[in-house]
């Protein structure tokens, strides 16, 4: 690179960062988190769906219960303004959501990347409450296509 970072535009820096990641441009920490949750499922004999599909009713019920339990803990931490509890709650909710993807055989890093790219294409127009709005003609990521073409999750 040789030149100072200030001589690059924001767009050039983003392109450099993207070029340094793997060819699929999956955020390495998300792929690692997914693998860690898979490791947890393997260790404890939790259900792993190898391809995208709905698991058994018992697994679905468990996923609902875990999500509800962790969400309630996060909400309580928010009500209590407990910063450590909020951080823990966010991590727990994310862990359970990734576990839900594992149970459903959904390789989340690919889905995440597609959704992120679509979100980054939004124009930046905000509602009064700060939510970034979709512009006219905004097209959602084609999640169904990603699921239909996804490899077995144990191959990632």
How would you describe what is shown here?
The protein has 156 residues and is mostly helical. It has a single domain (26-155), classed as putative ntp pyrophosphohydrolase like domain (putative ntp pyrophosphohydrolase like fold). It is 60% helix and 0% strand. It contains 6 helices and no strands. It has helices at residues 10-20, 28-44, 57-79, 83-104, 108-120, 143-149. α2 (28-44) crosses α4. It is globular, with a radius of gyration of 19 Å. It starts with 9 loop residues before the first helix and ends in a 7-residue tail after the last helix. The relative contact order is 0.14. The mean pLDDT is 87.
CATH top level class name: Mainly Alpha
Oligomerization status of the protein chains: single chain
Q: Describe the largest sheet.
A: none
Per the principal axes of the C-alpha atoms, what is the gross shape?
globular
How far the N terminus sits from the C terminus, by CA atoms, comes to 32 Å
Tell me the structural class: mainly alpha
Q: What fold name stands as the CATH topology?
A: putative ntp pyrophosphohydrolase like fold
Count of folded domains: 1
Sheet-strand content, in percent, reads under 5%
CATH architecture, by name, is Orthogonal Bundle
Give Rg in angstroms.
19 Å
Please tally the β strands and state the result. 0
Helix percentage range: 55-70%
Mean pLDDT, as a whole number?
Answer: 87
CATH-assigned homologous superfamily? putative ntp pyrophosphohydrolase like domain
Residue runs with pLDDT of under 50 for 5 or more positions: none
Order of helices and strands: HHHHHH
Number of helical runs? 6
């Amino acid at each position: 690179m040789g030149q100072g970072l200030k001589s690059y535009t924001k767009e050039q820096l983003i392109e450099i960062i993207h070029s340094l990641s793997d060819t699929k441009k999956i955020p390495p920490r998300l792929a690692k988190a997914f693998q860690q949750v898979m490791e947890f499922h393997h260790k404890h004999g939790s259900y792993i769906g190898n391809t995208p599909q709905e698991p058994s009713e018992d697994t679905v019920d468990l996923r609902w219960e875990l999500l509800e339990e962790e969400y309630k803990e996060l909400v309580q931490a928010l009500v209590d303004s407990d910063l450590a509890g909020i951080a823990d709650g966010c991590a727990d909710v994310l862990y359970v959501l990734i576990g839900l993807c594992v149970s459903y055989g959904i390789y989340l890093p690919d889905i995440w990347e597609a959704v992120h790219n679509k979100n980054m294409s939004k124009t930046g127009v905000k509602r009064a409450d700060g939510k970034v709005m979709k512009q006219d003609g905004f097209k959602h990521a084609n999640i169904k296509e990603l699921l239909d073409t996804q490899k077995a999750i144990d191959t990632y």
